[in-house]
Automatic annotation (TrEMBL):
<feature type="transmembrane region" description="Helical">
    <location>
        <begin position="254"/>
        <end position="271"/>
    </location>
</feature>
<dbReference type="Pfam" id="PF03600">
    <property type="entry name" value="CitMHS"/>
</dbReference>
<feature type="transmembrane region" description="Helical">
    <location>
        <begin position="132"/>
        <end position="153"/>
    </location>
</feature>
<dbReference type="InterPro" id="IPR014738">
    <property type="entry name" value="Citrate_transporter"/>
</dbReference>
<feature type="transmembrane region" description="Helical">
    <location>
        <begin position="60"/>
        <end position="79"/>
    </location>
</feature>
<keyword id="KW-0813">Transport</keyword>
<feature type="transmembrane region" description="Helical">
    <location>
        <begin position="379"/>
        <end position="397"/>
    </location>
</feature>
<feature type="transmembrane region" description="Helical">
    <location>
        <begin position="173"/>
        <end position="193"/>
    </location>
</feature>
<feature type="domain" description="Citrate transporter-like">
    <location>
        <begin position="13"/>
        <end position="378"/>
    </location>
</feature>
<feature type="transmembrane region" description="Helical">
    <location>
        <begin position="283"/>
        <end position="305"/>
    </location>
</feature>
<keyword id="KW-0812">Transmembrane</keyword>
<dbReference type="GO" id="GO:0015137">
    <property type="term" value="F:citrate transmembrane transporter activity"/>
</dbReference>
<dbReference type="GO" id="GO:0016020">
    <property type="term" value="C:membrane"/>
</dbReference>
<feature type="transmembrane region" description="Helical">
    <location>
        <begin position="232"/>
        <end position="248"/>
    </location>
</feature>
<keyword id="KW-1133">Transmembrane helix</keyword>
<feature type="transmembrane region" description="Helical">
    <location>
        <begin position="325"/>
        <end position="344"/>
    </location>
</feature>
<feature type="transmembrane region" description="Helical">
    <location>
        <begin position="409"/>
        <end position="430"/>
    </location>
</feature>
Amino acid sequence: MLALMGFLMVIVFMYLIMSKRLSAMTALMLVPLAFGIILGFGPDLGAMSLDGIKKVAPTGIMICFAILYFGVMIDAGLFDPLINKILKAAKGDPLKVIVGTAVLAGIVSLDGDGSTTYMITCSAMLAIHRRLGIHPMVLPAMAIMQNGVMNILPWGGPTGRVMSALNLEAADVFVPLIPAMIAGTIWVLFVAYRIGLKERARLGTLQMQDVIAETATAVVDIEAQKLKRPHLFWVNLSITVILMAALVREVLPLNVLFMIGTSLVLIINYPKIKDQQARIATHAANALPVIAMVFAAGIFMGIMSGTKMVDAMAGSLVSVIPSSMGPHLALITALASLPFTFFLTNDAFYFGVVPVLVKTAATYGITPAEIARASLIGQGAHLLSPLVASTYLLVGLNGVEFGDFQKYTLLWAIGTSLVMLAFSLAIGIIPF
């Protein structure tokens, strides 16, 4: 019953946001509360919700100060030289801009953190996409698809979980998957090229539109120019590089790093308290909806976990695999990782489902490392799950609806996983 209600809850949630009957934020809170009451957990829902909120609180804090940090950096003009160079290289060509966006997202994703990838990629590229009139879904699609591939890095999260759950090393799990990740990246660039061709056909090279856009935003640019701090470019760049290095090395928790960084760049770039307050007020409008979404997701996950719906869903999914398919369990795991990691959290899948699959696979001579690699294939589409907090940051930064974004990107993202799976089967790192 719990498993059935869990799947039904996710389906109802997806239907409500995709049909735009409810916003993602309200659906994340109201749907699990309704199902929790139906299941008889009413008195405990408050504690479950609070537990979920506590778990996502560090992410919410990080997103808040990261948006403020990069917002201040945009105001100060840190990304202006990069934007100008990309515009010059692209020469008004949407195809080059879109492919460049995918490449940039891949480079930034090396730090293994989705939120950072989205903030840096969007900070650098959003103005270019808007100036050229590129479809608003393209930038977040490129960012999340490329980050889905790079999410397999050992420090990205899922790989660390599965290595921990199965007591494996990176050499057993990650290193063999590198060729598949390269294949996945090539697929993302191919998608970028295809979309770029369509956008080029629709928009042309847009030299004339650039002039129109510059004229239309002249008044805004005058106000924005007052906030630029070109004389502090190297100072701001140094702080940002140090911040990213500290992030990769995990010198301090990510949220603490962004809190410290935001304080420093505000003081350095806008010494007057009045100016600091103005910058915070301006960017708070971008931060608040995203933070609210993250805490709403905490309620959703807290109730799913507290009611044991997640555990029941995991158990039921494993039980439907017939014994006759045992010799092909690695392939089944790879294919099943697509819906598993979409409807369940990474913790639920890698700590709950995968160990059960490993025990079953052992009777057919399939090693834990092979199951571990197969279980990571679904990461190509995982980030589009409503259970991934950083995705709400991405849609918030780009001003698009979550449901619309899923519909635009999901098939391409599933393609990423299938390409990685096909290549993995071809070279033998996942047995057929």
